[in-house]
Amino acid sequence: MISFEKMYITISESLGIYTKDQLYELFTTKEHGLPISGHRAAIIQSRVFFFCVVFAVLVPAWSIIDLLFLPSALWGGLLTIRAVSGIVFAILAWLSRRQPTMKLARLLLAGMLAVTPIFYLASGYWIEGYPLTSQEQIIAGLYGLLPFVMVAGLTLFPLTLFEFLAYAVPLFLVTLVSAFPGSEAEIPQAVSTMWLLILILGVALFSSLTQLRYMLSQVSRASYDVLTGMLTRRAGIEVLDLQFRLASMGGGSMSILYFDLDNFKAVNDTYGHDTGDKVLKTASEQICNCVRKGDSVIRWGGEEFVVVLPTADPREANEVVSRIMTAGVGERPEGGPVTASIGVAEVQEDNVNDWKAQIELADHRMYSAKTSGRARSIGVDGNAILWAEGSQAQAVNK
């Protein structure tokens, strides 16, 4: 039992895993945020593009080798198979230049990995019907390496465990079926083939998970504010741009809440920056706890926060504001609740042309809330929601 624990610790440390959350992130994408998903999609699509361009050229070009070393009767059929495969690779390379998304990245990778087994089975079926000399069998035997090439290619993609298995298992089954011994004499060769494939799969899995762990740590470091745990402004801009485009193209809703903590400078000036940091941290935790799972919270700068609410119309945005006000965002060092001035803007109701205009409009309404007495939110309709003195938020007309 002790040796098992030591082995687990060694493997975990080699992958950079020190918490259960980090381990869970390697199994599934459920805890991956938009910055991580976007970065991973971009990397997967760029590498699919590279592979597909290379294969689109090399697969048809290999027909020259077929012509030189295989029977001429085989050449026409193999050329057709290679030409079709080359065209498919070229199409996949063209599609991989589109705007990166995880859905598209997964489909492109699946398509790329599917071409090789189909090519492998088709070419094997075509070659099987012809008697070959020993030299010709050596060249034909190179076709049997194709599944190994694809499995080895998985080492270059940052995939979760479930994603890796979804791609690797079909390749494994295709190889298993093709290598299944037809006679007792073929059993040693079949066993060695599958053992080699399993070994390569293990190396590929370790490499893929290591890449993913490194990417998660780097993107997290670059995308999340150390103090508050919120998205940084740079990462938040990517989220804003994506969500705005999705809302604009689909005609859906997307609201923004612009927060500015009231009288925060007085906290820093009177009690010091350490106390101010504690106020910021508590406020950020409370805001994050009150928003929906698909919402994004950004530290825009200093004591200013931006909350992105995909699919939320003005009414739903005001509900989020009321929920945050009711829960509160902490207490001031001298006593009394921490409050904020909030501005709300929504894509469709405000008819804005880009996310920058939406941010500016929410910022303007936040400034109106601040000049109107602070501790309130100004919504799209111009009405104000006052910060709760007790446990209820009150809506009033401006």
Automatic annotation (TrEMBL):
Enzymatic class: transferase
Record Pfam families: GGDEF
GO molecular function: diguanylate cyclase activity
Species whose genome carries this gene: Candidatus Thiodiazotropha endoloripes
Cellular-component GO terms for this entry: plasma membrane
Transmembrane segments: 48-69, 75-95, 107-126, 138-157, 164-182, 194-212
Domain of life where this protein originates: Bacteria
Catalytic activity: 2 GTP = 3',3'-c-di-GMP + 2 diphosphate
Entry protein name: diguanylate cyclase
